[in-house]
Amino acid sequence: MLRLHMNESPYPPSRTSLEYISKYSNLLNLYHVEELYEELLNELSNYVGVDKRFIDVLASSSSLLTLMLTYVKITDSAIVLTHPTFHVMYQLLSNYRVQHAYVELSRDDFTLDTGKLLELSEGRVIYLINPNNPTSNILLEDPEVLRKVARRAKAVFLDEAYYEFSGLTFKDLVMELDNLVIIRTVSKAFSLAGARFGYIIASEKMRKHLSELRIGYEVPITTQAAVLGALRDPHYVRDVVNKIVEAREETREKLVDAGLKVIESKTNFLFVNLGKPCRKYWELLKKNEILTLCLENLERLKEFGNYLRVTVGKPEEMNFFIKKLLEVLTT
Q1: The CATH number of the domain where 277 resides is what?
Q2: Does residue 169 sit in helix, strand or coil?
Q3: Is residue 331 scored above 90 in pLDDT?
Q4: Domain end: 202, 233, 264, which one?
Q5: Are 268 and 248 in contact (CB under 8 A)?
């Protein structure tokens, strides 16, 4: 089955990453290995380009989303998000019973109304994915807008899960804005989705607030080892990113040439407008052993039901996807 539905990397972890897992696997009887943890923080610090006192690690960036909602609850706040946003958030908002408001993205090109964002930000927690999931585009580029939002908001959580594919980051602003939290993952560019590892770049103030809501020792020893190995093999990561970006651009060009509307992506996936409800074609692709994400199947995103979110795979996989998609669209 071709997995183009979860925004995973089509490439395996680096050899160095696997070697580090083996190296540290005999320490799985321990909750914490100080030497490993410090080496990991140092490597993350070098990679990100900020002092390690601004970095903390978590058992996946997804766990930070529930931590963020807990923070919203205990501070008696409300949260502001874009619509559409990461589909999991809608159910979490309901389950956590947090007050929330949405900034609607424009329907033609999914741009962000920064004026509306500023209007809603006063005293609230802001969550933005940049570039956005599922729309794949950059929402925010101007650091001055982020400064204005942060000065009004209680806290700003900026999800840079796709940073390696966009090249855009606001990480340097954490030293200026003590309520800004940057969220990162190793699931995409580092080919470590199954390791479940994320990290934040944030002020010591926000790190302290969030750490008080955590039990601690959540990140497994072998996960830390896998990430340390991946960080010490930067050429592999760059190669993976370059291959995915190249396949993304080639796939988008072919789909556009075939008459489909595809937003310019700065992620590892494409947001494809089929021009008609996607469920039928999602099912036909599934019968051809291709998994995609059809927004018509998601209760809170049915209004975008013409769209497929398609993870970028290897070139041969994307050629197979294009061939089958164009075939099923004619049925």
Answers
A1: 3.90.1150.10
A2: coil
A3: no
A4: 233
A5: yes
